[in-house]
Amino acid sequence: MTKLSPGRAILVGAGPGDPDLLTVRAVRALAAADVVVHDGLVDPRVLALAPPAAARISVAKSRARHTLPQEAINALIVGHVRLGETVVRLKGGDPFIFGRGGEEVEALRDAGLPVEIIPGVSAALGCAAEAQLPLTHRDHSSVVSFVAGVCQGLAEQNWIGLAGPGRTLVVYMGVASATMIAEKLMGDGLSPETPVAVLERGTLPGSRALRTLLADLGSMVAREGVQSPAILVIGEVVRLAEAEDKLPLLAVQAMERYGA
């Protein structure tokens, strides 16, 4: 049957990975989809919630390779909606936290097409919850900042004040730049002894929560072979997490020797 134009677009947050963390509203949207345009990190079990006849189109991105540039993704969504289809744009985490959801909404609005947003559990919230790591705590942190660890001019980005006493810094997409991030923060005055957690594959099989100190962050990522997806959490709240301590024994002994 020929569909009436226009259709609609629904930007859906798929959460950090575990399908059980989808909202009820997200599941309903998937069940109504004619087309699912999805990120590469979306779990196959989430994609399976769409009707068998629904088209599934991957627009996977990685640090070194994009299947489609963002402008082409925008055009893809707009094109299918104009055909009268219900398009679910399925994004890892939440569409509006480092998900480029704002750009896609702008494109749909500019085209005069209806769009709906269904929020998702962000990677920071889902991964921290799994590691029992409170991003805020009355005794340790009343401020949380989210930053992207991959961007042009990372070394020149002004992060002063985003991390330190009473604050928690969460870095998305920071694994490949972990050494630079640590050096930048220490250069901006953050103590090398600030605790850091690396939450790898949060909520997915094989997830790990690793803990060290800021001065050891880049070395630990290399030693442990940490791979994306992973987030970095920096601040005193990290001491409360259920995490594996990975600071080298020699460093621990040196700190104890010098009273650090």
From TrEMBL:
Location of the Tetrapyrrole methylase domain: 10-217
EC number(s) per entry: 2.1.1.107
Domain of life: Bacteria
Keywords: Methyltransferase, Porphyrin biosynthesis, S-adenosyl-L-methionine, Transferase
GO biological process: methylation; siroheme biosynthetic process
Pathway noted in the entry: Porphyrin-containing compound metabolism; siroheme biosynthesis; precorrin-2 from uroporphyrinogen III: step 1/1
Similarity section: Belongs to the precorrin methyltransferase family.
Name of the protein in question: uroporphyrinogen-III C-methyltransferase
Source organism of the structure: Sandaracinobacteroides saxicola
Record gene name: cobA
